[in-house]
Each structure stands twice: as structure tokens, then as C-alpha cells.
Amino acid sequence: MYLHLGKGTVVAQRDIIAIFDLDITSQSHLTRKFLSAAEKAGQVINAAEDIPKSFVLTCSKGERRVYLSQMATATLLRRAEDNVLMQN
Predict the structure, then answer these.
(1) pLDDT tens across 33-46, in order?
(2) Please, are residues 8 and 72 in contact by the beta-carbon 8 Å criterion?
(3) DSSP for 5-72?
């Protein structure tokens, strides 16, 4: 199944490592450092039309990607759970 992150961007749910709330995690200097390094490495994809509320870390075929999303983490989780229910 796939998860829609915004701006027409979808990712395979099997590739999702974690979903983070930007308001909470960006308070940590480690998260800011991680996001900065990912951006410099060209691994950040902006899937937000507005101010991002979350970021989704994925890994597919050994390639790490960080997707910025305007969706709240609760919304993304609900969408992921709905996809699983629809699949069964």
C-alpha cells in the first residue's frame, strides 16, 4: 500500500521507517543536524504546499529519503491505518 504525503507525493508504506512531528523534534539539535545533513546530501523532498508539520523517513533499495509533509503525524498515521484496513 501507499501513503499520500501531499502535493501528489506518495511513498510505499513498506519503505517508511518513521514519521516525526516537526514541532517536537526540531527542538533537538540532533534532529536539526540530521535534517541539515540530509538536505545537503539531496535526500530531502518537499511534499508540503505550506509550512511542513511532519517529516517521513524512508529507505528504499538502500537509499534514504526525508519527505517534508504539511500533514500532521496523526493524519498520516490514520491514513496508513486506513490503507491497511482497506487492504485486508
Answers:
(1) 999 999 999 999 99
(2) no
(3) EETTEEEEGGGEEEEEEHHHHTTSHHHHHHHHHHHHTT-EEE--SSS--EEEEEEETTEEEEEEESS-
Q: Alpha-carbon distance 68 to 88, whole Å?
A: 29
**Phi–psi pair at 29, nearest 5 degrees:** -65, -25
| Cα–Cα dist 9/34, whole Å | 22
Q: Which phi-psi region, left, alpha or beta, contains residue 65 (left: φ > 0; alpha: ψ -120 to 50)?
A: beta
Compute the C-alpha angle 22/12/68, nearest 5°: 20
Distance, CA of 28 to CA of 65 (rounded, Å):
20
70-82: average pLDDT: 92
Distance of CA 64 to the CA centre of its chain: 11
**Is the overall model pTM greater than 0.85, yes or no?**
yes
